[in-house]
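Dear support,

I submitted the protein below through the web form. The confirmation email said the job was done, but the results page showed an empty box. After a refresh the structure appeared. I'm attaching both so you can tell me whether what I see now is the final result or a partial one.
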Amino acid sequence: MTTPAPPPPSPLPATPTTNPLLNRNAFGAVQPQPLRRPSSSRPEQQQQQASEGSGLTKVANFRDVGRNYNADVMESPSSESEKQPVLKVGNLFRSARLDDSTPQDVETLKNRYGIRTVIDLRSDLERKECQHVSSTFLFPVIEQEMESELSPLKTDDDINPKPPIESSYSDTDESDADYFGPRNPPVDAASIGSITPGGGRRHRYSIEFAGHNFRRHGVWKPLGVWQKCKVVALIASGNKPRAVQMIGEEAIAPKGLIGLYHNFADYCGGEIVQALKLMAVSENFPVLVHCTQGKDRTGMVIAMALHCAGVSVEHIVTDFHRSQAGLDSQRDVMVQEMAKTGLDPSFSDAPANVLSDTIKYIIDKHGSVDNYLSKHGFDKEWQDRLRDNLVEKRPVTRSK
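What the results page shows now:
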């Protein structure tokens, strides 16, 4: 039975807290420019294009999804592209972590891009431990699961936790990049779609994309009994880094990057839908979605959003592949960080076939992407709301 989307309620009460755009650290901002066929350009050419025009100096892998997509459609000679929708420009953005933002970056995000809502797909532990955009999110994910599985006491919430959605609001002077306030309590997941920003405040929502379901089924359960015993022994001896590396080597590396994305599809559907429901609220736009690198988790959420907008798989994959150039300057360090988690260099990349294969995997398993989203609580009514927020009403005008 289709569950109707909830009607918009009164705005949530304002609580002075951290500006969603104010964080800290340091990495080159990049805004990949439209690439007709990303695979045909050399990485250094893509990187040069990616660095131009964003106005940001310390936010990596940043781009306007709609602007790049529209440029791709206009450049493509394919008759199929004639059927593609036109997306709103300056509406949906994606990037790597914002913790490195300078005060000027914050002003640019606020005033040039008008960012109103930030959706952060990292865990609390990851925000504390990953001090660099090149850090692998799998280290804190594995560490969390080790602590969860080896804890002698588990509550019902530990076994079947409800995915937390944390929110924060700012109605303070946001020019000070060092200002941080308390975070609001978690917002009930069922009410996400009815959250309506009020008073021009900026919002940050934290969604732990790689939640308990992913950690348990994608990280811990693939290990054999002997491997789990060895992990316990390593931790008992104080060698947690080696324990994390071993789990990566034994549970994640064998499946490859494509297998990891299949696990995302299987075990992170609820979290993907949480992000999409925030994006189905028109008052939340312009929206910026990010994780640590803005590649994997952000890539999955943006891919599902673009599908709801009616974008073809070809163009969805093109947007995803731009992260290869967007993170090119970080790649050497990313490879080193991946090695600490027991993963090979391929996990640092964003090859087009990874996402195209994952979309095919979803379709083969669920019949369609629409069915997949509906099974996780994002039915046609929700999908239509999101599409209306992303798609421009005017038709495409092509140059002859």
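Response: this is the final, complete result; the empty box was a page-load delay. Residues 38-390 form a domain with the Protein-Tyrosine Phosphatase; Chain A fold (CATH 3.90.190.10).
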